Amino acid sequence: MIPDTVFSALSTVLEGRISRSKHDLEHHGRSETWFPLTLPDAVAYPQTTAEVSQMMKICHAHDIPVIGFGAGTSLEGQTLATEGGLVVDFSRMDRVLRINDADMDAVVQPGLTREALNLELRTTGLMFPVDPGANASLGGMAMTRASGTTAVRYGTMRDNVLGLEVVLADGTVIHTGTRARKSSAGYDLTALFVGSEGTLGLVTEMTLRLHGQPEAISAAVCSFAELGPAVEAVIATIQAGLPMARIEFLDTRSVEAVNLYSGSHFPLRPHLFVEFHGSEAAVAEQAALFGEIVRDFGGSDFDRATKAEDRSALWTMRHHAYWACLALRKGAKAVVTDICVPISRLAAAVEETAADIAASSIDGPILGHVGDGNFHAILLVDPEDAGEIAEAKRLAARMADRALAHGGTVTGEHGIGIGKKPLMEAEHGGGWAVMGQIKAALDPKNILNPGKLVR
Amino acid sequence: MIPDTVFSALSTVLEGRISRSKHDLEHHGRSETWFPLTLPDAVAYPQTTAEVSQMMKICHAHDIPVIGFGAGTSLEGQTLATEGGLVVDFSRMDRVLRINDADMDAVVQPGLTREALNLELRTTGLMFPVDPGANASLGGMAMTRASGTTAVRYGTMRDNVLGLEVVLADGTVIHTGTRARKSSAGYDLTALFVGSEGTLGLVTEMTLRLHGQPEAISAAVCSFAELGPAVEAVIATIQAGLPMARIEFLDTRSVEAVNLYSGSHFPLRPHLFVEFHGSEAAVAEQAALFGEIVRDFGGSDFDRATKAEDRSALWTMRHHAYWACLALRKGAKAVVTDICVPISRLAAAVEETAADIAASSIDGPILGHVGDGNFHAILLVDPEDAGEIAEAKRLAARMADRALAHGGTVTGEHGIGIGKKPLMEAEHGGGWAVMGQIKAALDPKNILNPGKLVR
């Protein structure tokens, strides 16, 4: 609960941009996945770093939990106010502050979405390539260490955030990183905050690394008779060092979902969706080499989509795949899994997972960013059926065990939130306690996104 | 001081591999740069993680400072026992534990040097490219977040350490990271420990990312009439997106030093030493494009050294440049600077620095990894002359101010140790206090490399 006097102090700082309306609370209490509606006590809409700092000072003095919110596209309940408190919606801090063409970096506010940034960059010859599918806010992407379809070529948020402005638990404002391409000046605070899910501070400004728009882009689709050879072809592609810009896997059930949802007519077989970036010559060479590998593994011929609209249609289908999977069953919600394994173990991990799902009562399409060794099973459940949720969670837990047994991680890109917290001990052992020590040192009152990520 | 009873308990754990001999203390009390001899109380030579853990428990119980030591090539006094205590020399933990060809990673012990690892990798088609010049230990490189000549292409230790085994202050052993290529499972502890200079834990095992040996390698040297156009050529090269494997700048005084030291006959003009990696065709294309840029800036034609022995001779000269500079003045030691700025500010930063040195009484060749915006002035001083040291430090402080004014960092790759500690507040402001909080949380007794990096 936020006492009325505190609410009114916050309202003064925010010049009235704070709400307790049912609509606002419900909008910020929802999750994209299976977590139940969880209402915060209030929602704030700051416009400046100074406001965020003042707001934090008040919440710190009164022990009010504070939860950052970007576009609300996280999948593990990261933005849910499970202990009540104030959700801070950054949608009004969504400006591009500076684009430094010559140094290929940009300074932005956290509420800016990745699509809005790329729109702004269109005429500069530069782009921000990290693409988790959803039009997430860049602040949210940094906080979950997001990645997505292009990480195989351009890296994750870990690699593409150069610096941050952060408001700490007590309202102190700090700056991490610089615009230089490297530094060895002490602890890498930027890397510590990226992926911290709002538990160590609220990001109010970010310096992002940009990349040159490729001279040529070509996308392609191919299919395989079986899941095994499709994944083996990915492994061979990565091991050959082919600089794929995207290499996405969809199993037969995912393809079926996409066809139903997007009106496409892909054959009901496991598919790879790929993209090549480079000079005209490089793209042609990459496509030819990839074609040879696909043939070696018995895959279909593929047509290259070099026209922008065809590529766009393809990636829109891929980006809607999550919604397509959900639409397979009316009223379903999803327990989403996100394991990532060393590339040599990818085929085993995918096949074991497919067999486990097949042997269960759960419908679970499998798809993912296989160039990184990262894939998802979208486990469809009736959100009212505790038995189904329990079974899906058991499948998810076995996937996590499998990831660790293969030398991988329980989450490649979705983060921990509340959904994956039970898996942290198994992945990190004593390292999880170290995370807790860092959390306690930086937020001794435990007001920053309490209940998430750490014990 | 280490009490005799504690020494003898440590000796039991280490089966006698602990020494207080003058030779051992002096060897571990020396610095590569201007810091005075600083003797530890004892030197330990552990062979296993279990020994390191047992040793830490004893030191923790008795408040004995513990300082990690690899090859002793750090430049900011990182390994000096400024508060006494035990130096832990990792030279007997120098094995390659596993090479995973298919996943392009290797698990190694921290005392292994980068050259020894690459020797081991020779026949695998893989390499570990991070190259700070000195044959440093990989543990030491991780702890200073080292980089060097190849970072422009392959990244720094930040990008090439996938995971760590760390012994904490109380002897607890934790594991960070996985063998997967990405993860969003909580705080990035690997990134926190990389660059922590032994102040948060002792690394006992590391998982490193490997890269494919390029099909073709070609090196080249070119010179310019003036410093300005040489640096402008670098900026144009980076902004053109040319994937240089190395691009090194040497000013006229550095070239003079190299000629005197290595018997070479480079013209006394500012030089660029470069290297291209890729397929035969790609290397030829890169060299041609680079040649055009060099001509645009009035540089000399260059001969490509495609033969391995010619390249090797070239990079040996570059790697010996620090010693070559020291040899310019008999008995001199160096105050080494290491600023790194956004590439668009590189020419200004180098020219301002050159002018500042020229106006001083100090001899200071300038050279560096300019593709990253990183360069060094080697400020030569008589180690007995406090006035000279003070003047060199004033020059270094002005370089640091300049780096920050240009949006850069006071140290691109050498780290903080004791030498750059006075610059931390200016670079990080409140962020330095956050580093101190993390240090206090993980090492409340302040026994891990006390006096370094944090306040």
UniProtKB/TrEMBL annotation, chains A, B:
Broad class of enzyme this protein falls into: oxidoreductase
Biological process (GO), any one: lactate catabolic process
InterPro entries: FAD-bd_oxidored_4_C, FAD-bd_PCMH, FAD-bd_PCMH-like_sf, FAD-bd_PCMH_sub2, FAD-linked_Oxase-like_C, Oxid_FAD_bind_N, Vanillyl_alc_oxidase_C-sub2
Cofactor: FAD
Pfam families xrefs: FAD-oxidase_C, FAD_binding_4
Superkingdom, taxonomy of origin: Bacteria
EC code: 1.1.2.4
SUPFAM superfamilies: FAD-binding/transporter-associated domain-like (SSF56176), FAD-linked oxidases, C-terminal domain (SSF55103)
UniProt entry keywords in alphabetical sequence: FAD, Flavoprotein, Oxidoreductase, Transit peptide
Family: Belongs to the FAD-binding oxidoreductase/transferase type 4 family.
Record-given protein name: D-lactate dehydrogenase (cytochrome)
